[in-house]
Design goal:
GO terms for molecular function: ATP binding; dTMP kinase activity; nucleoside diphosphate kinase activity. Keywords: ATP-binding, Kinase, Membrane, Nucleotide biosynthesis, Nucleotide-binding, Transferase, Transmembrane, Transmembrane helix. Belongs to the thymidylate kinase family. β1, α3 and β2 form a beta-alpha-beta unit. By secondary structure, the protein is α/β, with parallel strands linked by helices.
Length: 387
Amino acid sequence: MEYVIAFIISILSFLSPVNSFFLFFFFFFFCQVERMKIVVFLDVQSEALCTAVASEAAIVGDSVEILHCHNSVVQALRRKDKQLQETVNTFICLITEKRSLKDAGVVYALFRRRIAVLSLEEGSIASTSIPLLETISSLRVDLSGGLLQAQILAVKAFFSFNGSVSQVIVFEGGDGVGKATQARLLVNRLLNEGHRVSSNEFPSERNLYGELLREVLSGKKGGIQDLDPKLFSLLFSMNRFAFLPELQYWMCRGTKIVLDRYYTANCGHQASKFPEEERAGFIGHLQLMEVSWLRLPPANLVLYLDLPPLAAFSAMKADPNRGSLDIHETAQSAYKENVRKTYLWCCENMSNWFQIDCCDCTGSRLSREETHNKVYEIIERKLIPIE
């Protein structure tokens, strides 16, 4: 799929922006798979476990394919690699009875293929830093009935998708407003309250076109005014699309997903490059492509951190942990104010967008804790409680 997308991108570069935008829509419309398919790479010897996997997967999947991989998990995954890349509406996982994170096959599945792994090995422990890895302990299964019974219950819990309630919470704002800080504070608070939480930031350099985006943002491909916003937004969209397997899995698990930027970032940064009368239409096209066609989970809450551009730029310059600034961060004040104006329009006109003022009435910037408290006032009203 990656090579097909690269080919399409190369074609788009020769077309007008409008034609390329709609050709891309047309391409992905016909690439969608309507039915949910479950693909299980199964490394299990117990007949009871095999039966449990087949029956539980059949409950949630319109079709189920079970591929036994007792000898080599890596070889089994690589044999099916091209076929699996061509599917979108598919839940792919590895279930293993004896392997743990110490095994090369599990590492390959988690970090190279980025598919969900259920390790049924006794004593295997999951880590919050590896959200795609599930174990008997992470699924909170009772061990009092013995190991086999616990493994069967873990399989059942692993496929218990129905009724799970997930929410996507996004932090947006101009550069230097503190999105990463507020995302981290919220994640820690939700974890302390007992929620299942995962987080990510976009764009991600490890995803599709991540390095290209970094090169473009560095200014090597031209300044802001030299880059067509339709094609530029397309690169960001593809970067997020590459993260779809993890997003889908988190949604299945009822996870509270906290994101530092999402497709909503294009609403502020790229839409601001259009005349005001064209922005609403472009924002509508962005949501149609990423939510309806690419099937990214829609944002349930968008928290826009509002800070005057000059204050944000001063904060960036004073941050010792920030590397070189990109073309958006070093842009002129007029551009940044236009981005801010577009974000404020979104807060006024789009559902589930909330403006968080990061300065007090005197113009002084609020502390991290004060801003977090304002964020959590909204979260408390909108957060779906733990079942």
